[in-house]
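Continuing the batch. This is chain 6 of the set; chains 1 through 5 are on the previous pages. Same settings as before, nothing changed between runs. Recording input and output for traceability.
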Amino acid sequence: MKKLTFFNLFFRSGRVFSLLILGALASFSGASFADDYPSRPIKIVVPYPPGAVGDIMIRIVTQRLSDKYKNGFVIENKSGGGGMAAAEGVAKSNPDGYTLLFNGPNHVTNLGLYKKVPYDPVNDFVPISYVAYSQTILVVHPQTGIKTVQQLIDKAKSNPMALNYGSSGNGTGSALKMQMLMRSTGMQMTHITYRGSSQGVVAQAAGEIDASFVSTPVVLEFIRSGKLTALMVNGTQRYPGLPDVPTSKELGLQDSDVEVWFGLFAPKNTSPTIVKMLSDDIQRVLKEPSTIERYSTIGLTVVGSNSEQFAAFVKSEATRWPKLIQEFGIKAE
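Output for chain 6:
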């Protein structure tokens, strides 16, 4: 056993003291950085095109935060690939709070649709807040002559692949909903993809698409103007703006439900102080009556969770959907 001399004791004590000082400095530096945040614009990557429900939703939030975040926000629309390119880019970015991701169901459903996903939706991100969710509506073009979901099912089954359906792309919520509905009813339709829901609904109104699931904010005016016919609202409650349209629960078709949720994420290792600041400010904005009313007007329901609540939700969704997708035998085309 080595003899513990005064010199060794002094050296060891000095080394421990140095480490403590370095740790304190690092902690102080991190706190100082968080205190200065944000000192420049914050970029939020959105895997949807301009005008899509996810894009609309986060722009409402950032507008309401402009009074505190003087440097503002930059929304980067990076659609395509089931949102994987956008998510991967944020996951690999510097965790300094200046690059965030605003994503929806495909954040976790991709795990069941693709053999390889270049990021871990649970462990590569820090959930900030579950912002809101949107009801979706099954719509058809009037030229189909279809007035009910049962008529759609009968027509699609009597002539397989003759009807088509549109979506925002393989792996997205709009495609997954229709694939699940087809699996549960025996329908077969041809899939046509567009770069986003706003582009797809315009194409459908022009007669290019027979049927599709579209988020309420994007499709509402097309229904009210008679350019599209609403057959069903996903969920358990009818949408107040369309009181005569039945729900999937009423029709016994809840197997096609995919909750269109949206939330904000940061890369892993982002400062907890920054995450809490963003989460608290988003929750504050989402509690404002003007925000709730604005969301409600376009068919969105505010949630506004904290980071821990959203993390638990994402973890449960990441377990739930791959199993369900495998059970239904759905694959990315």
